[in-house]
């Protein structure tokens, strides 16, 4: 026990803490997720976030100390997103065949996600800045923060909304698709994946990749399209109206 305490004191004060804690907790969450046959409620990202937040709160480790180690994993997000292009390249024939339909679906889906959030926020009487922060909720968090800053929202709050949206999509997507009777075949996986990537960005795409390779590929495409479309259209539309 004394040696463990010494090790804890050493790790908690160095960048190794954030890296070690993140890897250990995620590996354990992933093992539990696999043991439970990939049940949606056991999503390893969800439980890793909750566990890490609890650990940081109970131990009193501040976020900058944690992130000084976790930034090494954060850096890998860029290459991981770029790597999503490879599954799409393998399905380039389907992209050429359904390119216009997919682009139209991305525009309509993005408009529905942003518009419904703005409407609900307005109906609930939320402060103006909070409502604006809801607009990019279905875009991956770093981009959502930039968009919120451009349109007068609160970047930090936009990141929270984006993460919550992604988790809700990853947890509820399969149940919703099953109730809508979307088949689990070629075109069905395309529809499921693209819908999940449109509504739940990177977290939804990660969930789709775990379920089916076709769904994951088109979820990655939807994620990329939403980033481009939202970055171009949302600031322009808010500037006009």
Briefly summarize what is shown:
The chain has helices spanning 2-12, 16-35, 44-59, 63-75, 77-83, 85-90, 92-123, 128-134, 141-151, 155-179, 186-211, 213-240. With 241 residues, it is mostly helical.
Q: How would you characterize the overall build of this protein?
A:
- The protein has 241 residues and is an all-alpha fold.
- The protein has 2 domains: 2-75, no CATH class; 82-240, no CATH class.
- The protein contains 12 helices and no strands.
- Helix 1 packs across helix 2, helix 2 crosses helix 4 and helix 9 (141-151) crosses helix 10.
Give me some keywords for this one.
241 residues, mainly alpha, 2 domains
Order of helix and strand elements from N to C terminus? HHHHHHHHHHHH
Q: Quick one: biggest sheet?
A: none
- Rg, rounded, reads 19 Å
Please, how many helices? 12
List the domain count as a whole number: 2
**Uncertain regions: pLDDT < 50 for 5+ in a row?**
none
Overall pLDDT: 85
Structural class computed from helices and strand pairing: mainly alpha
Shape: globular
**What portion of residues is helical?**
over 70%
Strand content: under 5%
């Amino acid at each position: 026990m004394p040696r463990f305490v010494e090790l804890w004191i050493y790790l908690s004060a160095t960048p190794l803490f954030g890296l070690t804690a993140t890897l250990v907790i995620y590996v354990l969450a992933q093992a539990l997720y696999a043991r439970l046959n990939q049940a949606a409620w056991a999503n390893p990202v969800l439980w890793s976030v909750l566990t890490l937040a609890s650990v940081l709160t109970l131990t009193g480790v501040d976020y900058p100390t944690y992130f000084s180690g976790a930034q090494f994993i954060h850096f890998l997000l860029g290459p991981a997103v770029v790597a999503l292009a490879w599954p799409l390249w393998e399905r380039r024939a389907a992209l050429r065949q359904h390119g216009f339909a997919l682009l139209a679906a991305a525009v309509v889906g993005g408009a529905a996600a942003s518009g419904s959030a703005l409407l609900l926020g307005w109906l609930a009487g939320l402060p103006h800045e909070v409502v604006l922060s809801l607009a990019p909720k279905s875009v991956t968090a770093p981009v959502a923060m930039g968009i919120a800053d451009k349109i007068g929202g609160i970047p930090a709050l936009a990141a929270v909304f984006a993460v919550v949206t992604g988790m809700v999509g990853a947890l509820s997507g399969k149940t919703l698709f099953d109730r809508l009777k979307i088949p689990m075949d070629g075109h069905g996986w395309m529809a499921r994946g693209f819908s999940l990537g449109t509504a739940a960005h990177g977290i939804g795409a990660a969930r789709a990749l775990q379920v089916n390779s076709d769904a994951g590929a088109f979820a990655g495409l939807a994620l990329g399209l939403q980033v481009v479309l939202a970055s171009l259209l949302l600031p322009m539309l808010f500037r006009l109206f």
